[in-house]
Amino acid sequence: MAVRATHGILSDELREQREQIVGLLEKAYWMEIETVMNYVAGSTNPDGVRAQEVIEALRDDIQEELGHAQQFATRIKELYGVVPGSLAFEAEQRSLQPPEQQTDIVHVIKGVIEAETGAIEHYNRIIEATDEVDWVTQDVVIQILHDEEGHRRLFEGFLREYEAEGRA
Ligand SMILES: [Fe+2]
Ligand SMILES: [Fe+2]
Questions:
Q1: Which among 55, 110, 113, 145 is placed 20 to 30 Å from 8, CA to CA?
Q2: Which residues have C-beta within 8 Å of that of residue 103, sequence separation ≥ 6?
């Protein structure tokens, strides 16, 4: 029995593609971590009667996004990568920064939609990059993509309500 994988994404032959996939997974990992940070803030800061639905939804999402970060970390390790430490982190989610007024729920909703859209775009990229090369990563990312599409749709629904009232 061979000690090293002779074919598939763990083989020496596919080293270059494997490292490229690990790079994409690291970016995905950071996106999830940053989302957790901003959803903790976004589920705490808002004021107002109508903020409560958004707060509840974001609280639920925090657990899911943390689970995604852990799934990406696991897959990075399985592909012989090393999960990075916090000093390698670079923040990117400008639209998820707290609004000036904490009753500005539309700001939070739009920030969430933008973050989810960014994740959806990046995960589609990973699904394409892993096609016929790394089925397991592709399968993991397809399931996570499903969650993000659900999150995006939920917040689009919140935004529609404000749009219907001419407040967004
Ligand atoms: Fe996520
Ligand atoms: Fe999400």
A1: 145
A2: 46, 47, 48, 51
**pLDDT tens-digit series, residues 60-105:** 999 999 999 999 999 999 999 999 999 999 999 999 999 999 999 9
111 contacts 39 by C-beta, under 8 angstroms: no
- Structure tokens that stand for 41 in this block: 């803030």
pTM listed for this prediction: 0.95
Quote the ligand 1 centre to 144 CA distance (angstroms): 6
**Ligand 2 centre and the CA of 150: distance in Å?**
8
Distance 85 CA to ligand 2 centre (A): 22
